């Protein structure tokens, strides 16, 4: 009986133990920077509301390439000291036709810097439009799959796959998601971030 009571007490303590607060850095481009709208209504801000026990820093910049993200990352790591870095970069590399080898090299350096700082890393898959040709689009997509495998990190499926086919969720430019889409993106990202923070 005493053992059963002790087990119940321990279980109760485990259940009621609060989740440890973590610092999350989003390193992205215009998709993360809430292009065309206030940052307060973007998916990163919505994640902050969904996960108020954690602290989110949006380090996304519209037009950013992997090379630009790599240059900015050391200062962000110093100022934020994140527990988790979510990398959402590569779209602008693809739109500019940069070589997949350059994309891969930059992403690996970003991931290495983040890991060396003590942070966990999540990589968001990025895809380019099919009009870039099957050879380039395939090589581009493979970069993310190869990195996730080699670096042993989780690869978040590209959230725009669930947004781009629906005009009502897109801005007039046909590239960026609109305000209506932000909740869907936040819901898409949330379980991946929660899982990374509890592992």
UniProtKB/TrEMBL annotation:
Domain SGNH hydrolase-type esterase: 27-183
Signal peptide: 1-21
Cytoplasm as UniProt keyword: no
Keywords: Signal
Entry keyword annotation includes RNA-binding: no
Highest taxon of the lineage: Bacteria
Pfam families assigned: Lipase_GDSL_2 (PF13472)
Entries under PANTHER family matching the protein: THIOESTERASE 1/PROTEASE 1/LYSOPHOSPHOLIPASE L1, THIOESTERASE 1_PROTEASE 1_LYSOPHOSPHOLIPASE L1
Protein name listed in UniProt: GDSL family lipase
């Amino acid at each position: 009986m005493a053992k059963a009571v002790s087990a119940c007490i321990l279980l109760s303590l485990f259940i009621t133990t609060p989740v440890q607060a973590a610092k999350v850095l989003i390193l992205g481009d215009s998709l993360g920077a809430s292009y065309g709208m206030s940052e307060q209504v973007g998916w990163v801000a919505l994640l902050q509301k969904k996960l108020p026990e954690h602290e989110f820093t949006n380090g996304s910049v519209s037009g950013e390439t992997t090379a630009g993200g790599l240059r900015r990352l050391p200062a962000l790591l110093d100022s934020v000291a994140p527990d988790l870095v979510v990398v959402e970069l590569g779209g602008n590399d693809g739109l500019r036709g940069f070589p997949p080898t350059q994309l891969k090299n930059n992403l690996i350096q970003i991931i290495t810097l983040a890991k060396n700082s003590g942070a966990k890393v999540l990589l968001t898959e990025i895809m380019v439009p099919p009009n870039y040709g099957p050879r380039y689009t395939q090589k581009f997509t493979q970069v993310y799959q190869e990195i996730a495998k080699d670096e042993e990190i989780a690869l978040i499926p590209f959230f725009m796959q669930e947004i781009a086919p629906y005009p009502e969720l897109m801005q007039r430019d046909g590239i960026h998601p609109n305000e209506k889409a932000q909740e869907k993106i936040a819901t898409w990202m949330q379980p991946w971030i929660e899982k990374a923070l509890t592992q």
